[in-house]
Each structure stands twice: as C-alpha cells, then as structure tokens.
Amino acid sequence: MPVMFLRHGHVERPGERVYVGQLDLPLSETGRQQARCVAASLAGNTVREIRCSDLSRAREFAAIIAASLECPLVVDPVWREISLGSWEGRAMADVAREHPDAFQARGDDPAGVRPPGGEHFGDVLARVLPAMTALQAQDNGRDIVVVTHAGVIRSLCCHLEHRPWDTLFSLNIPYAGFWKPAHAPQGGCRRDTTA
Q: Which residues are annotated as site, described as Transition state stabilizer (predicted)?
C-alpha cells in the first residue's frame, strides 16, 4: 500500500487524563526530536509526499520530516483529530463525575455517541476513509506519509481490522508511531513504533 499513517510526536499537554481532541496544542521538544528521528528512519525510502492535519502539533511534526526528506507537504483539515466538543480541555474525572451517563455511554459506544458539540468515532471514519481511499488510488510505487492523530488512526484500524468499536481505546498508538494498512485481503493492520 502506498499510504503510511504516523501519529504526531509528544505534545505539551494541559494535564494528564485531560480530553484534548482538537485543542491546538504545540509539540514539545521531545516531539521535535521524535520528528527528527522519524525523518532519519525514512531517509532513502520512497516517500514522495507528506500530508498532515492542520492542527499545529501535526503540522510542525510533518514540516520537520518534509524538510528533511525534501518532499512536498500538504496540509488538510480532513486529518484532524476527533472533536470532543465541550469536553475538550476538561479532566476526564470531572466529566465522569458531572455527566456519568454520557461518559459511560460514550465508553460503551464510541462510534455512536458524541460528546456535546463534538464527533463520535464513526463520524471520524466517515471523514477520513474517503481521503484514505483516494490516496491509495494514487499508487505509483512511492509512499505517502499522513501525519495525523491517535483517534483517526484508531478509527481506521478498527474499520480495517473489523474490530468492535468498544475495543478502540485498547489500541496503543504511541506518539511518533507508524501504522500501515496491511496487504492482507481481510484488511488487517500493522503498527510500528519509532523513537
């Protein structure tokens, strides 16, 4: 397959166990170092283009890689992280305490229950799957790297592996981790980590 997905690097978080979603958080210095390591690992590969989310953590990460590989960078909001609406920036424990039914419902059905004003993972899949399919159709023997977010990658992986949506949060997509759709006809996937 010509498309590889890459989660952006480590970010400056507002706190642990906080809903981030589309908050526009910057990369940390660790995240910038991860980008340089990824670029070094891709040197000599057949990468012809980098695409990325328009959120700054993905944009900066992708720009470091694209500059190092001397290949074009295309910024596209379709690759944005899931929107968590009014939960963004809030501690998960606070949301669970203040809205226990909504918190539990989303955990039970992440592809069917939206936080207020946000998206569910089914919405994310509907947004990104056509874009992935279009990129795969451009196969010319060279790879496209898409720098995106854990929620986007988890949504695609659940769909392609035919996993139940309630297993989505158990998928480990580390910072600067690659995910590449497998060639297997059943649509499996392979996750690799870098730095």
A: 149
Q: What is the pLDDT of residues 176-194, one digit of tens each?
A: 999 887 643 333 334 444 3
Q: Would you give the end-to-end CA distance of the chain in angstroms? A: 23
Entry pTM: 0.90
- 8 Å CB contact between 7 and 177: yes
Query: 54, 28 in Cβ contact below 8 A?
Result: no
Fold adopted by 3-193: Rossmann fold (3.40.50)
The residue count of the chain comes to 195
CB contact set of 128 (below 8 Å; sequence gap of 6+): 78, 79, 148, 152, 155, 156
Determine the Cα–Cα distance for residues 90 and 88; give it in Å rounded to an integer.
5
Burial status of residue 100 (CB atoms within 10 A of its CB: 0-12, 13-18, 19 or more):
exposed
Q: Which of 10, 49, 60, 81 is catalytic?
A: 81
Residue 26 DSSP class: P
Annotation marks residue 8 as catalytic: yes
Q: Is 81 a catalytic residue?
A: yes
Q: Determine the average pLDDT of the residues in 48-75.
A: 97
Domain borders along the chain are 3-193
